[in-house]
Structure formats: structure tokens, C-alpha cells
Amino acid sequence: MSWLVYSLSTVVLFALWSLLGKIALRTATPVQTTLLYGLAGIGVALAAIALGQRTAGWSVGALWVGALSALCGGLGLMTFYLALERGNASLAVPIVGFYPALVAVLAVTFLDERLNALQIGGVVLAAGGIALLSAAG
Description:
Blueprint lengths: L2 H22 L5 H21 L9 H27 L2 H8 L2 H12 L6 H20 L1
């Protein structure tokens, strides 16, 4: 499958994850929900390995960035569930959804990637959307 199919699948899955996360927080705590997310992640990884996904190259020197990424993801997940617990999903999720625009800026800064004028405009519009949502909340 192409990167676009995977990307669009991720959008749908993340939307369901956000909606179901808000519903789950009616009866579970952010800590419980984060723990369940971690367990589900282990299950998904084991299934991927069983289906033949590549796992070569487990050098300690190379894994520290992956571990740091996982730590940031876990902490971000906890703060996401806290935001959902304490606010409206209709405000919290779009604000959290600003992170791809931030990734674009960081990729330019740290990965020597380039943004064209249209992409820069998208980042600016996304920032404006966050300002409007923040003012409404």
C-alpha cells in the first residue's frame, strides 16, 4: 500500500481513537486508559511481527531515539487523555491535531526539510485555527 493509504487510514483510526477515548473516560481514568493503550500497542506489535514485519537492527545505540520517541508519545497520550477528561473533545482534539504543523516546522529546523509556500500557508492557517479554538474555549 502507498503512504497515502496508510496516512488516510491513520486519520480514520486516530479520529476513532479520540472519540472512543472520550467515551472511555466516562468510566476509566486517564492512567487506566493510557495503560490499556500500551497493552494494545504490545498486541499490535506482536501481531505485526507474527505477520512478518521486519524487526532487524536492534542495536542499543540506535534504539535510544526510538525509546525517547516512545516516552514522548506515552507522556503525550497521558496529557491527551487528561485534556479529554477535563474538556470538550470538540475543542481538545482539534488543538491536539495541531501537532503535524509543529512537526513540519521542526522538520525544517532539524531535518533539513523544506516547505513550499502552500505548506507554509497551511501551517499559518493551522496556527490561526488553534488561536480561534483557544479563544472559543
